[in-house]
Fold this sequence. Notes:
binds phosphoenolpyruvate; alpha/beta; 8-stranded parallel barrel; 12 helices
Amino acid sequence: MRGKLVAGNWKMNGSLASSQALLKAILPPLATLGRARYVVCAPYPHLATLAPALRGSSVALGAQDLCEFEDGAYTGGVSGAMLADCGCRYVIVGHSERRSVFAESDETVALKHAQALKHGLTPILCVGEQLAEREAGVTESVIARQLDAVVRRGGLEALGRGVVAYEPVWAIGTGKTATPEQAQAAHAFIRGRVAGSDRRLAEGLTILYGGSVKAGNAAQLFAMPDVDGGLIGGASLVPDEFVAICRAAQGAQEAIRI
Ligand code: PEP
């Protein structure tokens, strides 16, 4: 059975002190929750300092990006090996802000995905359409193109070793959440596309929803059969909101097991 997973994406926010304070606020309540998985994706410079506080806790450390190359003359790059060395277990790849602001191509994202796996990190692969693409009716072909780039490079098995996050770009940071039905339709499309080649792998694939998830809408989204949790931006910076979202994931997980 797929478990629920909630990952917080802190983006480029805060100071080392505020990141530490955020962890201090969320760790005790999350320790009391059950078996859902929790991840916080912190800014690069904070990772090594935060790692000891997470060791032995129910929360894993993640990064928000990594370099597509192995190591060497790539000034400013941060390799998968460096992230693993800092205690990271997860890394976001292909976030829409990386794709649009930093012009990352599908192929670059696929290289990053491969690097993450090579270094024992679980990639959280973000896919999703722009508003104009949804309005043009090409949501599914956009998602398919983004997934296929990763499968072309690493095979379907590579996709299965990571997590996929469906994040409609029009819902990220805008306060406009996809309806549970819209999220379910996209997630079912992703699972169905993978199932076309490997049904078992598709069944086990964790697919998160991201885009203005809040304490007030998380439970409805996580109740959808193909929504396995969330990738949370803004609300992950607010301890009470993030904990409430994690609680909703835990509740949804318990509902499945009944
Ligand atoms: C994100 O950054 O991936 C995200 C989903 O942001 P928000 O929750 O703020 O929409």
